[in-house]
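the two lines:
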Amino acid sequence: MLALKLAVRNVWRWVGMVHSRADASEMDAADELARFRDQFHRPEPGLVYLDGNSLGMLPAAAVARAHEVIVAQWGQRLIRSWDEGWLDLPGQVGDRLGTALLGAAPGQVLVSDSTTVNLYKLAAAALDARADRSVIVTSAGEFPTDRYVLAGLAAARGLELRQVAGGPEPLTAAALESHVDDDTAVVVLSHVDYRSAAIADLAGITALAHRHGALMLWDLSHSAGALPVGLDAAGVDLAVGCSYKYLNGGPGAPAYLYVRRAHQGLLRQPIWGWFGQREQFTMGPVYDPEPDVGQFQAGTPPIVGLSIVDVGVALLAEAGVPRLRAKALALGSLLVDLYEEWLVPLGFRLASPRDAAARGSHVALAHPDGRLLRDRLVARAQVVPDFRMPDQLRFGLAPLTTSFTDVWDAMDRLRRLAEPAH
Amino acid sequence: MLALKLAVRNVWRWVGMVHSRADASEMDAADELARFRDQFHRPEPGLVYLDGNSLGMLPAAAVARAHEVIVAQWGQRLIRSWDEGWLDLPGQVGDRLGTALLGAAPGQVLVSDSTTVNLYKLAAAALDARADRSVIVTSAGEFPTDRYVLAGLAAARGLELRQVAGGPEPLTAAALESHVDDDTAVVVLSHVDYRSAAIADLAGITALAHRHGALMLWDLSHSAGALPVGLDAAGVDLAVGCSYKYLNGGPGAPAYLYVRRAHQGLLRQPIWGWFGQREQFTMGPVYDPEPDVGQFQAGTPPIVGLSIVDVGVALLAEAGVPRLRAKALALGSLLVDLYEEWLVPLGFRLASPRDAAARGSHVALAHPDGRLLRDRLVARAQVVPDFRMPDQLRFGLAPLTTSFTDVWDAMDRLRRLAEPAH
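prediction for all of em together
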């Protein structure tokens, strides 16, 4: 363990010393997590995939697991599989995810539905629990589906949706202080901003919400699997997140939700479905919800998708959050170093925090020709970043699948594309 | 086509003449749909699977399709696949399903979320559109998740949930006449009852709701893929259904919803998600929903699940509703004939309509030892039916995968188990 820590620290220390592609290769050779790259399906040779924060790569084991679930469980055992493990999956995968990556003790996390639907369920539950209050606080820079869901809930209930100005700087309790008050029912924010990657002060803002008697709901879509979250320790009430980014769950994979144990049985979600029912198969006349997190299930869980999420979560759990974070920091620092050396002169601007500790696992670079450059990177240079309006190239650094040479190559190809000669 | 019709009619005419297993085999030999059995994965030899109305069997082509989506689309093309077909899938599979099996012209059906979540979205939209009314009408015998969802909506809005007594007889407009009035916002019913298989009068009840200015929402989970539905022709407003039964979409497969074209742009669902947003990737500040059925999407669609549903729907579409229904009728009639000959003397009671025309594609048989007999059928006789409280064995006859010898064998093994000697 000590050797491991040293190795990580060494990689980290080398970052400032990378002056060539060979140096980047050396970092890959010393990278404790490099072996995980072999556990993912490799796309076409030469492709530099830096969009793992939007759709994570395919774990090789997911192919076999999906096949097993489809052929051996569904095809062979058919309906009997519900009693042979399927019914337990949402909580089982949730517990694995919660304990390994979210800092959540078992019995508080479920994998279910989409992030949008989970956010709706939890935000509505929070509003019901604070029915005498009239304000929802979020950020104007919040991910669209979160803002839209909250706008819908506010409109339906005649509440105020208070949107704090969002920028590239990390959200702090101090910045929110004047926006959260004793009429605030719930504060809903992303732990890591989907554009800038700025890390909000999860513990501090949670404490601020609590000082005013409000509930705190975090969206972890851009943080889980890439950096420590610590839900239990921070006293977080509610959280949601998607599993198709750093968790490598696949396109449209089922999302997750967290309900702090202390709230279970007290909060009640609005979609009263049969999978949230106690004694579900008695099919009784009256809705009598599970007393635990199971109540937050709604319909029949998507078994194939859930099983694939399990595979991705298992890989991240094996790597462990400290190593994931250490590598993400190193990758990000290398990218920012190269940006400063090569891209600043070409008109790029860092749209993420400069301080690595304040940044999640992606880096946003703005450029007036951002969209064009992104399209050319994909079409001509075999580099796949993401693009976010109006002018940002977003480079996702997934610690299990991104290498230091990936970062070198991406920045190198980008500067060539952006040079005036082009 | 004429030959085909004759063949179906012939099978149908033979039913009363089946006096041996050999006769049943002859019917299989004459069955126009028998060839479809080879297009499904076969579980262990000897298994008689009569639970396809709970979890349909695995289409062999689904294995290859899932592999293609997982490896070639996700694994190879990664994020680029969203623009290479994924974004269109919910509507595309919905259109295929709608036109082939629901009697719905394109642009009205989406495959998304679970049945529970879809029912919540559509029922809430209907209630918002009739905000001056205070009653939801459903049946006390309605499938649990439907009743629970409606109870939740009624509780949240202070509405009356009026539950008409449900029995094994088909629901008619006449029976509902005294329960639906001008204060009724929406009527929510299953087209085919999940226990008795009684077919409700879809057109008549829809017309009744409309006479009172109410909206009509049908749950098609037990009818789509097994009998004609005819949503457009009957003037149905809204519908939902699951895809893991007769549609062979797999465990927890994404469900579907139907919104009549005339209502699109007027009805608005409560979960304002980014996949329902016009110009979704502009990620603008204000929720501005799609003017069409696309608005009823919420979060990111589950691509692997959607693709598998597509495979199942394609098989049913190829068979065609008339042939599916003709075979389902023949299978059901054989089962009821054998029940009358063998099982009535052993204390069984038909818990489905006696009239084949009034019955969907499953048959429920009640017996005081129903649960025990079901368990023994599974454990000792390789027959898998379903069980529904308190005493019903439910035999699902999926026209693509159930054979006449399956029906013969199931009834034959059941009578042996139920005979006093046992």
